[in-house]
Amino acid sequence: MRARTVSAAGLIVTRTTSAPTSVCFQCLRHDSLPSPFPVQSRKYHPTRRRDASPFGAAVSAAQTIFKGMPKAPPGISVDPLRIVGKELKFLSKNIRQLLGSGHPALDKVAKYYTHSEGKHMRPLLVLLMSQATAIDPRKLPAEQSNPSPVDNPLSQPSILDDSNPDLNPLVSRATESHQYNIAGDDNILASQRRLAEITELIHTASLLHDDVIDNAVTRRASSSANTAFGNKMAVLAGDFLLGRASVALARLRDPEVTELMATVIANLVEGEFMQLKNTAQDEAKPVYTDDTLNYYLQKTYLKTASLISKSCRSSAVLGRCAPEVVEAAYSYGRNLGLAFQLVDDMLDYTVTEAEMGKPVGADLELGLATAPLLFAWKSNPELGPLVGRKFREEGDVQKARELVYQSNGVEQTRLLAQEYADKAVAAISDFPEGEAKSGLIEMCEKTMRRRK
Ligand code: FPP
Ligand code: MG
């Protein structure tokens, strides 16, 4: 089992004049689950020195720092949507503002998925993580407690030559409907709010591309963008979202966060490339080995958990949190991201299209061997040739589905997802009690309960 112990002191940054003492925390130990992810310890960042006080002082600092945050009564679960609901209310509108184009067709396609009701799970997590790791704004250096200039370009606008009619002050600020909206939560920095928007932009860009690759007809119970506008416009709109997300990222003026989030984009593509094959082996005659699940989990990390983990991490980096808090935020996101995708792959075998709002049973049809099938393959070697030919022959999909149901592949997937969800909860166990922490825990429980 992987376990971590982080002292309460480790969660807090105090800027004392005493000599820096490093906070005692144990690194993650090796995992009983097949894990392709080496645990990385965060290197001491010379430009972001985090001095920690001795234990007792830090605990009392913790009590002072977090005393203003709403508390959830122990044992009572909270609705994560309610905690940051006001912020989320403005998310889609603010994202559309980042996506304005003078070209009417591009403007329309780029904003298309922002009109349908998505779950907004990724930005919700960023906002909850920002709250849960908030340091009292009075303790932050002045430039950080003031709204950060997240809209300010670094280059001359004439050089950038990227007109956005929705941000042009002459056009947009004149009308209220174009104003950037915030709920004004003191525990969320402007940069963290913008990070939430960037996270959703990257996710939406990946969906625009994914629907072309998967030839999807519907998305969120409506026509997919490729169906509505064609493949070319859908791909180009996705590229445009990545462009505007990159601009917004640069304007956060944090190289570490830029590195993390730019890497997510590379990870998404690499994950999608890994998914083009079901195993690392030659596809002619694949056999189930110990590496089979590791390959799938690595693909799952790149395709899904990377965005969630690195955006949670970035939220803590922007909040100038202590290194062990940054690690805890990352570990939470990584484990929750893996649980989320495992559940997604399980639901593909268990729910109806009407419930999901998108085609189900699609993975086998697309030739994909996900966790339920892999667990079935382990005890049914005859699935090997079907995996190798991507379930292309008549009767393959049906046979594979039957073996999955017979061999408890679905239940084993759920159990593995539960292990990751539990690890996500454990990762933030030393966060101070409060509504935001309860919201993060509830997100793990919701992930396990979800039907769509
Ligand atoms: C949904 O998977 C897709 C992803 C989580 C990532 C897709 C990534 C790419 C297409 C690479 C390009 C990335 C960018 C940023 C342009 P799914 O097909 O399993 O889920 P679905 O059923 O919702 O379609
Ligand atoms: Mg898809």
TrEMBL record:
GO molecular function terms noted in the UniProt entry: metal ion binding; prenyltransferase activity
Region described as Disordered: 139-170
Keyword list, A-Z: Isoprene biosynthesis, Magnesium, Metal-binding, Transferase
Listed cofactors: Mg(2+)
Comp. bias (Polar residues): 143-158
Organism, as annotated: Penicillium steckii
GO biological process: alcohol biosynthetic process; isoprenoid biosynthetic process; mycotoxin biosynthetic process; ubiquinone biosynthetic process
Name used for this protein in its record: Dimethylallyltranstransferase
Domain of life: Eukaryota
Matches recorded under InterPro entries: Isoprenoid_synthase_dom_sf, Polyprenyl_synt, Polyprenyl_synt_CS
Gene Ontology CC, one term: transferase complex
Pathway: Secondary metabolite biosynthesis
Family: Belongs to the FPP/GGPP synthase family.
Gene3D superfamilies: Farnesyl Diphosphate Synthase (1.10.600.10)
Statement: the UniProt record of this protein carries the keyword Ion transport: no
